[in-house]
Design a protein that fits this description.
- It is built from eight helices and eleven strands.
- It is of the alpha/beta class.
- The strands form three sheets. Strands 5-6-7-3-8-9 form a six-stranded mixed sheet, sandwiched between helices. A three-stranded antiparallel sheet has the order 2-1-4, with helices on one face. It has a two-stranded antiparallel sheet with strand order 10-11.
- The protein is globular and about 55 Å long.
Length: about 250
């Protein structure tokens, strides 16, 4: 079995001929690692994640995936208000035959995933009654019950308050360190990548991508270039993780 979870080689994608979203993107990641993908809106983060889960095919280059992949979207909407256990059972679809009902084994898998994420007491709660962070954890549980080895999350902390951001990020870290999952998550927060990611992929422009250890890649100059404004990397007293602060000028 390869020690690489996935390998992206010179991947490019164009929604229309000669209208490239990204080109020449490369990254090789070992199993059990956490990778953060950063870049401004419209730079191709979600497109790259969709390529990795097989929803899109690269226009050029190649992608090798060694393991079962599950995707956790940024938003999740349904026409019905499902119970949490039913949402998680959706992740067992590949194990359930057409027109069949979930088996006792499927329900055991689902409850085990909810218990691992601290949501077992909310199994019969309606999804909309959960907090934002709990809903994200329910979607992660849905991904886990399909026996995923590679978990891909599109901006998992988007629209969450600080407490729920920490809840989701700590869960991601635990799944990688204790369960050996490979995690890929996109974010607009360099501080999140510094705190939780082993490697980072910066999508600087259509054809420029910087990949490497997060602690090395996430420097002031790189992040300033990435977002097009001056950024300061600060180490708060009592914290092991630096944070990034934009240097904004107040209006006179």
């Amino acid at each position: 079995m390869s020690e690489l979870a996935f390998c992206i080689e010179n991947v490019g994608f164009a929604y229309r001929p000669h209208r490239w979203v990204l080109r020449g993107c490369s990254a090789a990641v070992k199993r059990g690692r956490i990778v953060s993908v950063l870049g401004p809106n419209g730079r191709g983060k979600t497109t790259l994640l969709k390529i990795m889960v097989g929803a899109l095919h690269p226009t050029e280059g190649s992608l090798t995936i060694n393991g079962r992949v599950a995707f956790v979207p940024q938003l999740f909407g349904t026409g019905f208000d499902y119970k949490v256990i039913d949402v998680v059972l959706m992740g067992r679809a590949r194990n359930i035959g057409l027109f069949s009902q979930p088996s006792n084994e499927d329900r055991i898998y689902a409850m085990s995933a909810l218990e691992a994420l601290g949501l077992d007491s909310h199994a019969t709660t309606l999804l909309h009654e959960l907090s934002g962070g709990q809903r994200q954890l329910a979607l992660i549980a849905r991904a886990l019950v399909g026996d995923a080895e590679i978990l891909i999350l599109d901006e998992p902390t988007s629209s969450l308050d600080f407490k729920n951001q920490a809840l989701v990020l700590q869960t991601i870290h635990r799944l990688a360190t204790r369960n050996g999952l490979t995690i890929v998550f996109s974010t607009h927060q360099p501080s999140h990548a510094l705190a939780f990611a082993d490697e980072a992929l910066l999508m600087v422009s259509e054809a420029e991508h910087i990949f490497g250890p997060a602690i090395e890649v996430l420097g002031e100059s790189q992040i300033s270039r990435l977002y097009g404004l001056p950024m300061r990397r600060i180490e708060p007293p009592g914290s092991d993780t630096p944070v990034f602060v934009p240097l904004l000028k107040a209006r006179s």
